[in-house]
Specification:
Length: about 120
């Protein structure tokens, strides 16, 4: 078997699990979060993550409050964070907070912040 790469960089994408969204809607919100956080990340983090293969982990949060708490902790640690609010054109009301993107950042730092969350 080939060696499993040791990813030192990743993005964590967190979607709310307490609101009803179709699978496609969740995917779109997660994609928005990934781009938003990437754009806020510093050049070195983006390059290292990109060169390593762009690892992403998708997690779920139980509330809007939990997303904002994680965002605050991440920003205090110097991690790029992007909260996503929906435009309300399809499934959910306008302004609904749906997702949070973190990083790219060092995997061990993100693990300390998001390690208690479940995979989507």
């Amino acid at each position: 078997m080939p060696d499993i790469p040791d990813f030192k960089w990743k993005q964590c994408l967190i979607v709310r699990n307490d609101i009803k969204m179709s699978c496609g809607k969740k995917c779109a919100q997660i994609a928005h979060a990934a781009i938003g956080a990437y754009e806020k990340a510093d050049k070195i983090a983006r390059k290292n993550w990109f060169d390593e293969g762009q690892k992403k982990v998708v997690l779920k949060a139980n509330s809007e409050r939990q997303l904002f708490e994680i965002k605050t902790i991440a920003e205090q640690a110097g991690i790029a964070a992007s909260i996503i609010q929906d435009a309300g054109l399809t499934e959910i009301p306008p302004g609904t907070v749906t997702a949070l993107g973190l990083g790219p950042a060092r995997s061990e730092t993100l693990d300390r912040i998001t390690g208690d969350l479940s995979l989507l």
